[in-house]
Amino acid sequence: MSSDSGIPPVTVVAVGPGDSRLLTLRGRQVLEEADVVAGFKTVLDVVAPLLGNAELCPMSYRDQEEVLEYGVGEARKGRSFVVCCWGDLNVSARELLARVRKRADIVELVPGISSIQVACARTGIFMEDSLFITLHKRQEIDDDLTELAYYLKEDRRHIILLPRPYDLMPAGIAAHLVELGISGDRPMLVYQRLTLEGEKRWEGTLKQCAESKEEFSDLTIMIFPHGEIEVSGQRE
Ligand SMILES: C[S@@+](CC[C@H](N)C(=O)[O-])C[C@H]1O[C@@H](n2cnc3c(N)ncnc32)[C@H](O)[C@@H]1O
Fold this sequence. Notes:
five-stranded mixed beta sheet; binds S-adenosylmethionine; 236 residues; 2 domains; 10 strands; alpha/beta
């Protein structure tokens, strides 16, 4: 199928936070019917067991342009092309969506469950009481760090923060925040590999995090709670 404009159609499916049981029914249906499915390798690992006869096109940061180009070429020939993204597509997935948008007509965006929603479920915090900041992007993040420090000082909301593997990880971020004048006694949590094998929770103060020697996973979320929270269980 090709759109009237000749721009190839593509569907984007957000696959959830890692546990394939958290993929939506619509996402699953689109994937089962797909001819060509592209995504980063870790994302494809989640969906591969659910696919029909689709051709899998794993991509890396280096070759993503070429892989997407190949997929839209196949869509032009009439094959259904699906691009998968991790978690939800409106949470820190802007760069991939922009890459798809510039070469194809996105016919459907299938949202997913974000890792930040899972972090909210684990900590009992509500999105409406929270502020979300991502450092997981290529652009300059100085403004984001300043904003983070500003809101931590203001202390009116929970803050959900995505680090940037591996140059801006919890210990380095915490040390930087202490330098910016945030109290080292500030409580915080770090979640790793939410919903996946090896899910972990770390709890402590900003100072303890700054001194931590733990090698945090690339799937890591930091939470700075505002007031008391009710932390609950992990993956089953
Ligand atoms: C490029 S962002 C994409 C986020 C994704 N769109 C989402 O909604 O979860 C990737 C970052 O999300 C966070 N993340 C994603 N899945 C996670 C998980 N299962 N556990 C902890 N953090 C996760 C990590 O900070 C990771 O570096």
